[in-house]
Design goal:
Elements: E1 7-10, H1 14-23, E2 31-35, H2 73-79, H3 83-89, H4 96-109, E3 113-115, E4 119-124, E5 129-133, E6 140-142, E7 145-147, E8 152-153, E9 167-169, H5 173-176, E10 184-188, H6 192-202, E11 211-215, H7 228-231, H8 236-243, H9 247-256, H10 258-262, H11 266-281, E12 288-292, E13 295-301, E14 306-312, E15 318-323, E16 325-328, E17 332-333, H12 342-347, E18 374-376, H13 381-384, H14 394-406, H15 432-444
Parallel strand pairs: 1-2, 1-7, 2-3, 7-18, 9-16, 10-11, 10-16, 11-12
Antiparallel strand pairs: 4-5, 5-6, 8-17, 13-14, 14-15
Helix pairs in contact: 1-14, 6-11
Bound molecules: flavin-adenine dinucleotide (FAD).
Length: 446
């Protein structure tokens, strides 16, 4: 790998994998991708029994821009001999396990992925990026980078001293395999992960707890809005319109659109409610289940058994409770990767919140020389909207990045538009001028 790469992909989650999968069709670009895991493995800590994708399987790594690609989910089904069985099963959604297996199958077929490479630091020598690994391997040089090392699980400040087997983020759940039999378990966070963890506890996947206490800051256990007009936020046209808005307006919109990306799947809510109802019929004693929306964890005193200080936003009261185990479903935070050297960080433009300023083609704004780009995936919720951390538009974003890198339109990125005129540029709408001339025409007839 002595020859400098045209593109080095840092991290091989679904988003950089999508870029790598499309690059298979662009042999003229010399590229390589690196990940610290020993092989592709999608969020293994949250592979709970029965969990499903929140996205259509057609929104896979490639189909939206290259339906002819051999790396599609449909080709995976055909190659695995499951196409007809899959259609007959008529599943409400693909399981996360199957989609993870699909992505691992794609990864297996690509020659430019390098696993077992933990990126230690990345620097720029004025002409090339240098990627150094913790392993004793040669540093890699590249003209362009794509940052794809994902987000960091968010742990509230007061929980940090107690991180371990008794208090952990949900992303570690299936890796830790906790035995919660007879324990008082508190789940903090009312999004999809919180719901999946509570359902899993109710099913007794980790033993039968003495109690399950679910806290959510949200006013209720709120559904994901998957209705068609909301799904317009997950179209290229909307993302481009959003990107052009002033920063303050973008922040407000993202906040207002929270439930379009962070709500709980209606299927999960239904399964949860039905399970709770059956539990009630059977006496509801073991485990004791307490569901508390409008509650936020103020502080956690440990070690286990933990004392939780909880604020009730409905009546302003503070209460306390005790837990033997705390599972934090507290989401993720976006921050600049630690491996970027201080000198490189200083050259990157960030907004007041420390977010990278990303151009429409997902290049970070910086003062580097022409022809040296630093792209970033899953880093643009503030700039590209709520679709950015989701898979819905991942292959479209990959296409935008590859087209920009190649300097030509190798994949179609325009033309697949929604039904809403977000930008005021729908040619079917009469403009003010058109209306005036129509009026003049009508008047002249009378
Ligand atoms: C449980 C869960 C379920 C989800 N389900 C859906 C869904 O159904 N639909 C949807 O649209 N979105 C879903 N998402 C959101 C999103 O699609 C996923 O989080 C997706 O995995 C993001 O992909 P990514 O490539 O940005 O990051 P990640 O998947 O986090 O991958 C980042 C990769 O970078 C590697 N890495 C990190 N640091 C280094 C380093 N220093 N050196 C080398 N490698 C490194 C990691 O090992 C990892 O493989 C889900 C998210 C979660 C957490």
């Amino acid at each position: 790998m002595n020859k400098p790469l045209d593109l080095a992909g840092l991290g091989i989650g679904p988003f950089n994998l999508s870029i790598a999968a499309l690059l298979r069709e662009v042999p003229q670009l010399h590229t390589a991708f690196f990940d610290r895991k020993p092989q592709f493995n999608w969020h293994p800590g949250m592979m709970l029994p029965g969990v499903r994708l929140q996205t259509s399987y057609l929104k896979d790594l490639v189909t939206g821009v290259a339906p002819w690609s051999p790396n599609s989910f449909l080709n995976y089904l055909v190659q695995k001999g499951r196409f007809y069985a899959f259609m007959n099963a008529d599943l409400p959604a693909v399981s996360r396990a199957e989609f993870a297996d699909y992505m691992a199958w794609v990864a297996d077929g690509l020659g430019n992925l390098h696993f077992g490479r933990n990126i230690q630091y990345v620097d720029f020598d004025g002409d090339l990026f240098h990627i150094h690994f913790r392993e004793e391997t040669e540093p890699v040089r590249a003209r362009n980078l794509c940052l794809g090392t994902g987000k960091t699980p968010f742990i509230p400040q007061s929980c940090r001293p107690w991180r371990g087997d008794d208090c952990f983020h949900n992303m570690e759940l299936t890796l830790r395999q906790p035995d919660v039999a007879g324990q008082r378990v508190t789940v903090v966070g009312g999004g999809q992960s919180g719901a999946e963890v509570v359902l899993s506890l109710l099913q007794g996947d980790w033993g039968r707890p003495e109690s399950i206490h679910w806290l959510s800051r949200r006013p209720n256990f709120e559904p994901l809005d998957e209705t068609p007009f909301t799904n317009e936020y997950f179209t290229p046209g909307y993302v481009d319109t959003f990107h052009q808005l002033p920063e303050a307006q973008r922040l407000t919109l993202v906040e207002n659109q929270k439930l379009a990306s962070d709500g709980i799947s209606p299927d999960t809510l239904e399964a949860l409610y039905q399970r709770l109802y059956e539990h009630r019929i059977s006496g509801g004693e073991s485990p004791r289940v307490v569901l508390q929306p409008h509650r936020s964890l103020q502080a956690l005193a440990g070690p286990a058994p933990f004392q939780l200080d909880i604020h009730n936003a409905l009546n302003g009261e503070r209460t306390s409770s005790t837990a033997d185990r705390v599972i934090l479903c507290t989401g993720f935070e976006s921050r600049l990767p630690d491996y970027l050297s201080a000198a490189l960080r200083q050259r990157l433009e960030t907004d007041d919140h420390g977010h990278l300023r990303l151009a429409s083609d997902f290049q970070a704004q910086w003062d580097g020389p022409p022809g040296r780009h630093l792209y970033a995936v899953n880093a643009g919720r503030h700039s590209h909207g709520i679709a950015d951390p989701q898979m819905s538009l991942m292959c479209w974003r990959s296409a935008r990045i590859i087209n920009h890198l190649a300097g030509e339109t190798l994949f179609p990125v325009t033309g697949n538009v929604g039904l809403v005129d977000w930008n005021g540029d729908d040619p079917r709408v009469a403009t003010g001028d058109d209306r005036q001339s129509l009026l003049a025409l009508l008047k002249s007839d009378f």
